[in-house]
Structures are given as structure tokens and as C-alpha cells.
Amino acid sequence: MSIHETAAPACHQPLTLKDFKSGVEPIWCPGCGDFGVLQSLQRALAAHGRPPHEVALVSGIGCSSRLPAYTSAYGFHGVHGRALPVAAGLKLARPDLEVIVVGGDGDGYSIGGNHFLHACRRNVNLTYIVMDNRVYGMTKGQPSPTTEADWDSDIAPGGSGVQPFSPLAIALAAGANFVARGFALDVKPLADILVAAIRHPGFSFVEVLSPCITFRPEEMEWKKAVQRGALSVNTDRAAAMAMALSVNELASGIIFQGDRPAYSETLPAPTGLAAIEKEFELNAA
User: Fold this and answer.
1) What is the pLDDT of residues 197-209, one digit of tens each?
2) What whole-number distance in Å separates Cα of residue 131 and Cα of residue 133?
3) Which residues are within 8 A (CB) of 273 and not within 5 positions of it... i.e. 6 or more apart?
4) Per-residue pLDDT tens for 268-284?
5) What is the pTM of this model?
6) What DSSP designation does 25 have?
7) Which CATH number goes with the domain that contains 117?
8) Is 170 exposed, middle or buried (0-12, 13-18, 19+ CB in 10 A)?
9) Is 132 helix (H, G, I), strand (E, B) or coil?
10) CA distance 212 to 28
């Protein structure tokens, strides 16, 4: 086991994917990549070994943010772009819970972009999974922060003309402790990446290429184009950044595993209530 990994918690009864299924049927478009992410996450949680009542899934707004309802774990469906601060607060208040955040590229990188940067910087011990389809799927096909500049659509004829940014490079620059990219239709490899992300201390970020067959049917070609395993694990942030900026944008794998202490480990030892009360005592004199 690497020094950057934590062991799976002990569990008396082996868990399976079915243990993390809810009675709610997904209403995503048939063929949506988010189905694969859901199954991968359910597999990962079963392999990780913590029962559903010890797991909390937090999401924002968008197609992918529906995911918590489709699992048997605790779920919190927040407002647009605000899933990360909610999750950070939950994890700091309840460090005993496994906290996982899910969302999409619009929710996470646009209205939630500022929270993304500071979540990477703070390094709270949680996992953030972004299903990136390079389009706003729930609101009818607007370009997102990761949409190609020349992608032609009814709402942006000829393309937006705005250069997309690299989520991996942004996460590395901002300080994320674990960075990876997976593909939604590679269910088992993605599940393996998610297990590694969940077990790694600090803030773990996993970008998942998740095709939107409704507004971007051409993305189904990703099945052939994804360069599986092309990203290799680095423990040096600069080397990981160089790779993130040079490899194909459809390369998958784990690119960085860092050793920054999680946010909770950098805090001063908690002060007892009596000591706090004493600080506010007024002198009778």
C-alpha cells in the first residue's frame, strides 16, 4: 500500500452494488453516460466497504446532480454551483461520514467555479466527481466552460469563440491532493479510479468524460477515441501539470497523488468548552 493511501474500513458483511441502489429509477436520457458513472460509483462504494448509512452524497443542479436520489446512501440536493461548500461543511461537522460530491461541468466549473478552486486549496477530505459532457444538458444545450470554442449549436452559431479550460490543470494548480480522469462507459476501470480517490486523504477530484447523446451525439465516438490509461501517476505536482497540459484531452487514468495533509489535520487541537467560556468572562472589578 502506498503511503498516500488509506486502508478500506473494516466491514463485517461484504457489500455489493445492489446495497447502494435506491428504489428510484433514473430519468436520464437512454444512453446517457451518467448511467455508467452511477454504476461505477455504486461498485466503488461496495468495494470501499462502508455501508450506505455512513456515506453522504452531495450534489448541485443539473442532469448529473440527480445521482444521489438513485443510491441508498444519504443525499443532499443543493442549489446550483454550491455543492462543494455544503459538502465541506458536512465533512467538517461529521468527519465520520464518507462525503462524496457529484455534479456536472456547468454546475462545477461555471457558477461553482470559485468553490471548485477553494475546495482544491482547502483540501478537505472528500471526493468530487464531475460528469463532463461539455454542454448544459438539462437547460437545452448551451456551451459550458469545457465546450470547444468552435462547437456549433443553435444557441451559439459558429461556436462561442471562448477557449475551454482544462479541469485537470485547474485542479492541480489550485492544490487538489488527488487528480484523475475516467470515462463513463468504462465502468470497472472508472470504479477502480473512484475507489482510489475515495481512499486518498484530502481533496480528491475525478473528471469523468460522460457523453450527452441528446445534445452532443458525436460524443459517442469517445468510446473509440478515449486513450485509456494514458495518464500515469505522478507524486510531483509540476510533472503532473506538465502532463495535464500536454496529453490528449481524452486521455484517462490517475495523474496525481499528493501528500498534503487534509484540512482537518492542519487545524489546532479543539479547545474545551470551559476554556472558551473563560475567555469571555468579565472581571468583577
Assistant:
1) 999 999 999 999 9
2) 6
3) none
4) 776 677 777 777 777 65
5) 0.89
6) P
7) 3.40.50.970
8) buried
9) strand
10) 10
Q: Residue for cell digits 462507459? A: 185
Cα 247 to Cα 42: distance, rounded to the nearest angstrom? 29
Q: What is the pLDDT of residues 10-55, one digit of tens each?
A: 555 799 999 999 999 999 999 999 999 999 999 999 999 999 999 9
Cα–chain center distance at 154: 30
**165 in Cβ contact with 207 (< 8 Å):** no
Total domain count, the chain: 1
DSSP string, 139-191: TT-B--TTS-TT---SSSTT---PPPP-HHHHHHHHT-SEEEEEETT-HHHHH
192 inside domain: yes
Q: Which amino acid is at 259?
A: D
User: Is residue 240 in some structural domain?
Assistant: yes
Residue 245: which domain range?
Answer: 17-279
Q: Kindly state whether residue 175 falls inside one of the protein's structural domains.
A: yes
Sequence letter at residue 75: G
Backbone angles phi, psi at 231, to 5 degrees: -85, 130
Distance CA 256, CA 202 (A): 12
Q: pLDDT class for 9, splitting at 50, 70, 90?
A: low
Partners of residue 181 on adjacent β-strands: 207, 253
Q: Is residue 220 part of a domain?
A: yes
- Mean pLDDT value of segment 109-113: 86
